[in-house]
Structure formats: C-alpha cells, structure tokens
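QUALITY CONTROL LOG
STEP: pairwise intake check
CHECKER ROLE: data steward
CRITERIA: each record must contain a sequence immediately followed by its structure tokens, with no blank fields

ENTRY 1 OF 2
RESULT FIELD BELOW
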Amino acid sequence: MDKGKRTRFLIVMGIVLVLLLVGIFATNKGGEPHESIKEVMRDAVIHGDNKVSLFGLEVNPSLISAYIVSGILLLMALIIRIFAIPHFKIVPGKFQSLIEMWVGYFDNLAKTNSPHMNKALGAYIFAAGSYIFVGTIFELFGVQVMTTGGNPISLPAPLCDINGAIAMGVFSYGFIMSGGIRNNKIKGVGLTLKEFSLPISMSFRLFCALLSGALVTELVYYSIMLSFVLPVLVAVLFTLIHAVVQAYVLTMLTSIYYGEVSEVHEKKQKDKDKNKDNKKKKSDVAVEI
C-alpha cells in the first residue's frame, strides 16, 4: 500500500471512529439495567429466572437455541444435498473445496484414531463437531426472545446449559461403548466402563468452557456501557476460540477412545498359534532325533 492510499485509509478509519463515538454518546440514555450484575451472572449459570415459554411450558433459553441450531443444520444439509452435491466437479470450486475440507478433516480424524473401524465414527464426530461449532457461533447473532417475565434476552449457546452439555457428553460416551460392543462384545463394555469419568469430564469441559466465555461477555457488556467496540471484540474472540477448541477436543477424545475400545485384541489367538508352532517344532525335533 503506497503512502497516498495509506493516508486515505487512515482518514476514513478516523471518520468512522468519530461517527461511532458520536453515535455512542448520542444513543446512551444512562438508564439503569433491570438486573444487577450478580443476578445476570447467576442466571447465566443456572437459568433460574429468565425462562422462555415453549407451547405453554417454561423452559431454559438454551433449549430454544438447541432447536434452532438443529433446524439450521438439518436445513443446510438438505439444501447442500439437493442443490450443491449433484453439481460437484472434479476440479472443485470454492464452496466445494470448503465442504470437502470440512468433511475430510473429521474423516481423516476418524481414520487416524480408529483405522480398523471408522465409517460410523466419521459420521458421528462430523455431526457432533458441526453442532458444537455452529451452536457456539449462534450466540453471536444475538437472537432476541421475550422471557416469561417480559424482559428481552439474547439466546445463548445450546451447550451453555448444563443439561445440554451432559447430554452431549453422555451420548458421546454411549457411542464409544457401541463401538466396543460391536467388536469386543461384553469385553467392550468393560473396556468402556474403565473410563467411567469420561462422560463427566467431557460434559463439564464443554459446559465450563462455553460458560466462561458467556460470563466474560456478560461482564463486559454490563460494565462497559459506552463502548460498542470492546464488547464486540471480546464476544467474537471468546466465541470463536471456544467454538474451534471445544469442537476439536470433544471429537478428538471421542475418536481416540472409540478406537481403543473397538480395537479387536487377538492376544489369545496369537498365544494359541505360538503354542502350536512350539509343539510342531518339538515334534520335528523328536522325529529328527
């Protein structure tokens, strides 16, 4: 970038910054929030106050987020399958390359950690990783709903609710056990149950990581009332980091443990073959003598 373009860029950015500051001070009414910071942080953890009505039932806002995210993913999958995949080419375009890269990453992860059985594993970690990533990014859109108390709130990420995080952890654990049962029968159950703390660690890792980002964002929005820039940067930074890291961690753990419990152990068969070879050698020696 030459000196003239750099100068024009700085002038434009300065004008934008001044307009933002003017807009901030012009629109700030200085009103008090309807909740204290203690209530905001507590409700972000236990969702005890801000309930949402769903067909007459009071539910946590995260449940609404979970339904919306699931619907978005299913709709995207349907659209891509009907309108995009039939037009894929040998030389991929940008969109096709993006889809192939996204699917290929989870497929390679499954083949690397479970080379003996990975078809179902690749499909599961692709679905789980996509749900975690899209569900975490979803809170950036700030979809507004009205609570049963008449206060507007933004829908959080589905896994900010401990129930959603536990469901994801337990379901992943059950999928790992299914791989063990398929290849090792009852022994696969025992191999899986040895890692009895796995669903707890996966659930609380998801919940605590996403909740920490939500709490920091709530704290910044509550405390810094005259800034549009810092809250946005903090929200985007924490959300993107948690979306990528948590999708990677859960899918990596699932694929590793699935590969371990579904691996067929042929130690006894090898011992039998070894004993047969030893007997054969002894008989050959006896014949030679």
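ENTRY 2 OF 2
RESULT FIELD BELOW
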Amino acid sequence: MEHPINNLLKISMENIHDMIDVDTIIGKPIEVKDVLILPVSKLKFGFAAGGTEQKGTETAFPFGGGSGGSVSIVPTAFLVVDSKGVQVLHLNEDTHIYEKILDFVPKLLEQLEGKFKAEKEV
C-alpha cells in the first residue's frame, strides 16, 4: 500500500509542472515590423510538504499532511533582435550599471558636441 505522502507530493509536483514551462522564463516572441522582441523573466519558487501519523486509530495510515508553495515571476529584460543585431534592454536599473554607462556615453558626447557647436555660432 502506497503511503499518502507520496500522493500528496505527486499532486503538488504536477501542479508546479503545469504552472512552469520554458515560456515562463523566455517569453513568446513578439514581432513588430522587422523587429523580434523576446521577454526574459526571473523565476523563483519554493515548495514544502509534510505530514504526521497518529497512533491509536483503526486505519492503516492515520495520516495528516499538507503542502504549500510560492511562485514569483519578475520580468528582467527584453531581447530585441533586428537587422542591426541583438540588443538587451534591462528593466532592473541597479544591476546593470556598466551597460547603462556605456549607453549613456554616446548621448553625453552628442550633447557636448551640440553645446560646443552652439557656442561657436554665437
């Protein structure tokens, strides 16, 4: 006879499997004209199960148990694929400071160049 905790764990794991697939991490592609956009997410989940058996009852497995879980899905970036190549657009500003700086430098140079041109014209 199979122990009731086995069935409890089996049902819980099947439910987790139904919730999570590869499309949860790398989302389904979105096409806009000649651009392909792929959402990327971070997935965290926790799971616990437990039970107890009690003495003094007539059933073969006087079992009481339960299980629970938590799932967190957080969008983190988008992969943008176009004729120029692949670009990563991060949504979390704190963790990718170097990429933010590299993206900012050309804009800063353009602004400075525009300012110097305006001063020369005056």
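INTAKE CHECK: passed for both entries
DESCRIPTIVE NOTE, ENTRY 2: The chain has three helices and four strands.
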